[in-house]
Design goal:
By secondary structure, the protein is α/β, with parallel strands linked by helices. It is 41% helix and 12% strand. The chain has an 8-stranded mixed sheet, sandwiched between helices. The two termini are 40 Å apart.
Amino acid sequence: MSNPPASTAPLAPFRGADGAAPDADAILERFLAVTAGRGLALYPEQEEAMLELLGERNVILNTPTGSGKSLVAAAFHFKALCAGERSVYTCPIKALVNEKFLSLCRDFGPENVGMMTGDASVNPRAPVLCCTAEILANIALHRGATSDIRAVIMDEFHYYSDAERGYAWQVPLLTMPRARFLLMSATLGATGFFERELTRLTGAPSVTVRSDRRPVPLEFEYSETPLTERVAALLEAKRAPIYLVYFTQRSASEAAQALMSLNVCSKEEKAALQVELEHARFNSPYGKEVRRWLRHGIGVQSNDLF
């Protein structure tokens, strides 16, 4: 069986010529070669953050949405893999954990990646673990200073200040001195406190990499046009996919039903969806409705907390 193309092959860890862990320069060179093969080029903020992480520093990455924070996290995972160490990526909700788990499997191979949430566990002893913040907090409370996790990536770090769930972001920072941290958020204020406390906890320098440059500009619009009509206009203008946010599952379901009147997909796309859905199982109480919406090109995602 031939190897997959460089653009799609998992990013495999490697060792030095003497069998030792490669140095930071070699890790960065290999990582950049693979990302270049996938058609990716680094923004200055990404390169700066990677260099700081490879220099054994804690990093607070405060850059806008769409600026490639996930690529910085991938470099941190890769560094840990090459050193034979474990790394963990935390998300605030299960839906994001599931999505990130699949992404990490593509990046590093499914044998190297595990997932843990409140109701699912897959390959939990893998060197790269993706989990909800509460799972990492439990690990930190149970093992803390003796944990074998050396690289901690906390996405949506602004949850630190959440009155109900913030403890899950706080506990690892208080109890895991042997780890190095990458804390990521697009919405942070002053970070001097976190830099000082991370340095005090881990004994390693801590820096903030910040930018307000948005690689993908946002467009703002206020409209009094009924939603279904506005979505129809966006479809006509070839501006799909379209992501709609609702605060309850019922509202999302009602919107999905209303959008069934629109031609979201072409006949060919609907046929392709039908083929893909033939062997999918929909066992939940809403399974029949979800299948029907999907065949029309409409998906509904429920972001359970944990």
